[in-house]
Design goal:
This protein is of the alpha+beta class and 191 residues long. The chain has six helices and five strands; from the N terminus they run H-H-E-H-H-E-E-E-H-E-H. The protein has helices at residues 2-17, 20-26, 53-62, 74-85, 136-151, 166-175; strands at residues 46-47, 90-97, 100-110, 119-127, 155-156. Strand 3 and strand 4 form a beta hairpin. The N and C termini lie far apart (85 Å). The relative contact order is 0.12.
Amino acid sequence: WSSRFDQLKRWAYEMSTVSASRWERRRPNAPRGPAQKPPRPLSPVTYAGPRDLDALLAFLASVKDEIEGGRVEGDLIADLADALTHRRQGVAFVVRGPDGIEASLGLLAARPLFSHAHFLKAIWHGVAPEACMTGHAKSLLLKGREFAESLGRPLLIEEMTPDVTTGKAALIGRHMTRAGAVFVYEPAVAV
């Protein structure tokens, strides 16, 4: 008992001589750094239907630089948007605002070449420039995860424009597991 009592006395002495800031660092539940801003509220996300096609196409035209690195053919994206709004081959989610569609996520059912196991691939995941920093992107991402969970299928989101959307890549990284990397070689002369 004597040695245990001596240890407690030494610990009490050390604690009495420790500065307040050092003591704060030792407490496991001490607040760290400046106060964080509260998270943005989640936006209401709904399915896009056939009546939303024109508004969805207008929205996709406004964010085309975020889709496949800006390499979007109008007729092909229109065909795919039509299929997704009719829930053929996938689904499109939208966040509506006072001026129409402010954000959207298009999910396509796909499969690897040598497997019958389907997965969901995000074809587009964008927010209108005037609606950035509203929580729409996070809301869509969480809705996509919820949808994938309900189907029991993995969700794949590729981010192809890191110079423009590093914030989006960070958001996706906070809510999904990184699954590799994509590498691109572009010849000097495009065909």
